[in-house]
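Weekly modeling sync, notes
Attendees: S.R. (lead), two postdocs, one rotation student

Agenda item 3: backlog of single-chain predictions. S.R. asked that every request posted to the team notebook include the full sequence so nobody has to chase files. The rotation student volunteered to paste the first one in as an example of the format we agreed on. Action items at the bottom.

Example entry:
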Amino acid sequence: MTKETTARRLTVAMGIAAGILVLESVGGLVTHSLALLSDAGHVLTDLLALGMTLFALRLAERRPTPARPSATTAWGFSWRSPTGSP
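Predicted structure, as returned to the notebook:
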């Protein structure tokens, strides 16, 4: 699987999670359900984790800079990829 496919899948998962977050938040407020509101908070943390993973994936795609000369000697920015692993 390519990084583009992974990024696309992460974006779709974030969209689904955001939709669930909105629905659970509204449902929890309308029905005064603490269970729905707490689950919406849990979905929010999942959404943040997906965002952090997408950010790390994008950061790992950056080209090497003078501070990180090449992928063979200093790994470029690829070393940041495990930073966002869930």
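Discussion: group reviewed the output briefly. The CA atoms of residues 20 and 43 lie 8 Å apart.
Action items: rotation student to repeat for the remaining queue; S.R. to check formatting next week.
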